[in-house]
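Notebook entry, structure prediction.
Reason for the run: the old model in the group folder had no record of what sequence produced it. Starting over properly, with the input documented here first.
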Amino acid sequence: MDNKPSFRTKKIELSIKRLVSEFFVTQRDYLTKFPNVRFEITNVKVSKDLRFARIFLVHNITEEEFKYFNKLYLKDIQNLIARTLTTKYTPKISLSFDESFQESLRVQSLLDNL
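New structure, fully documented this time:
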Protein backbone atom coordinates (compact mmCIF):
# COMPACT_ATOMS: atom_id res chain seq x y z
CA MET A 1 0.00 0.00 0.00
CA ASP A 2 1.45 3.40 -0.88
CA ASN A 3 1.68 6.25 1.61
CA LYS A 4 0.85 9.03 -0.81
CA PRO A 5 -2.05 11.21 0.33
CA SER A 6 -5.21 11.07 -1.70
CA PHE A 7 -6.47 13.92 -3.82
CA ARG A 8 -9.15 14.67 -1.24
CA THR A 9 -6.57 14.86 1.57
CA LYS A 10 -4.39 17.22 -0.47
CA LYS A 11 -7.40 19.38 -1.24
CA ILE A 12 -8.32 19.66 2.45
CA GLU A 13 -4.69 20.40 3.39
CA LEU A 14 -4.63 23.22 0.86
CA SER A 15 -7.97 24.57 2.12
CA ILE A 16 -6.76 24.56 5.73
CA LYS A 17 -3.54 26.30 4.73
CA ARG A 18 -5.54 28.97 2.90
CA LEU A 19 -7.94 29.45 5.82
CA VAL A 20 -5.21 29.77 8.43
CA SER A 21 -3.32 32.22 6.22
CA GLU A 22 -6.52 34.18 5.86
CA PHE A 23 -6.92 34.20 9.65
CA PHE A 24 -3.42 35.62 10.11
CA VAL A 25 -4.10 38.36 7.57
CA THR A 26 -7.64 39.37 8.55
CA GLN A 27 -7.75 38.77 12.31
CA ARG A 28 -5.06 41.20 13.36
CA ASP A 29 -6.08 41.49 17.03
CA TYR A 30 -3.32 39.05 18.03
CA LEU A 31 -0.84 41.79 17.11
CA THR A 32 -1.82 43.71 20.25
CA LYS A 33 -0.42 40.93 22.43
CA PHE A 34 2.37 39.92 20.03
CA PRO A 35 3.34 43.11 18.15
CA ASN A 36 6.44 41.77 16.36
CA VAL A 37 5.21 38.29 15.51
CA ARG A 38 5.69 36.88 12.03
CA PHE A 39 4.13 33.60 10.92
CA GLU A 40 4.78 31.54 7.84
CA ILE A 41 2.86 28.35 7.20
CA THR A 42 5.25 25.81 5.75
CA ASN A 43 3.09 22.69 5.62
CA VAL A 44 -0.23 21.14 6.62
CA LYS A 45 -0.63 17.42 7.25
CA VAL A 46 -4.08 15.86 7.57
CA SER A 47 -4.63 12.33 8.84
CA LYS A 48 -6.05 9.75 6.46
CA ASP A 49 -9.42 9.75 8.24
CA LEU A 50 -9.50 13.59 8.01
CA ARG A 51 -10.06 14.01 11.74
CA PHE A 52 -6.74 15.60 12.66
CA ALA A 53 -4.63 18.28 11.01
CA ARG A 54 -1.20 19.48 11.99
CA ILE A 55 -0.16 22.92 10.81
CA PHE A 56 3.58 23.54 10.65
CA LEU A 57 4.70 27.14 11.01
CA VAL A 58 7.81 29.19 11.31
CA HIS A 59 7.60 32.06 13.78
CA ASN A 60 9.87 34.54 15.50
CA ILE A 61 8.52 34.36 19.06
CA THR A 62 9.71 32.32 22.01
CA GLU A 63 8.34 28.88 22.82
CA GLU A 64 6.42 30.21 25.85
CA GLU A 65 4.83 32.96 23.76
CA PHE A 66 3.90 30.40 21.10
CA LYS A 67 2.18 28.24 23.74
CA TYR A 68 0.31 31.31 24.96
CA PHE A 69 -0.68 32.13 21.36
CA ASN A 70 -2.00 28.57 20.94
CA LYS A 71 -4.02 28.90 24.13
CA LEU A 72 -5.59 32.18 23.01
CA TYR A 73 -6.21 31.70 19.29
CA LEU A 74 -6.35 27.99 18.48
CA LYS A 75 -10.10 27.84 19.11
CA ASP A 76 -10.68 30.83 16.82
CA ILE A 77 -8.74 29.15 14.04
CA GLN A 78 -10.60 25.89 14.68
CA ASN A 79 -13.96 27.71 14.49
CA LEU A 80 -13.01 29.37 11.21
CA ILE A 81 -12.15 25.98 9.72
CA ALA A 82 -15.37 24.44 11.08
CA ARG A 83 -17.50 27.22 9.57
CA THR A 84 -15.81 27.09 6.18
CA LEU A 85 -14.95 23.47 5.38
CA THR A 86 -17.79 21.35 4.07
CA THR A 87 -16.63 17.97 5.29
CA LYS A 88 -18.37 15.42 7.47
CA TYR A 89 -15.81 15.95 10.24
CA THR A 90 -13.89 19.06 11.08
CA PRO A 91 -10.25 18.19 11.61
CA LYS A 92 -8.93 18.92 15.09
CA ILE A 93 -5.98 21.17 14.42
CA SER A 94 -2.70 21.66 16.21
CA LEU A 95 -0.04 24.27 15.53
CA SER A 96 3.57 23.11 15.53
CA PHE A 97 6.90 24.77 14.97
CA ASP A 98 8.56 23.49 11.80
CA GLU A 99 11.86 22.01 12.93
CA SER A 100 13.00 21.33 9.37
CA PHE A 101 13.31 25.05 8.70
CA GLN A 102 15.50 25.49 11.79
CA GLU A 103 17.63 22.55 10.69
CA SER A 104 18.09 23.97 7.21
CA LEU A 105 19.28 27.27 8.70
CA ARG A 106 21.80 25.40 10.83
CA VAL A 107 23.11 23.45 7.85
CA GLN A 108 23.33 26.64 5.80
CA SER A 109 25.39 28.34 8.50
CA LEU A 110 27.73 25.33 8.61
CA LEU A 111 28.16 25.49 4.86
CA ASP A 112 28.86 29.21 5.02
CA ASN A 113 31.66 28.59 7.52
CA LEU A 114 33.50 26.25 5.12
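Summary: The chain has four helices and three strands.
The old model has been moved to the deprecated folder.
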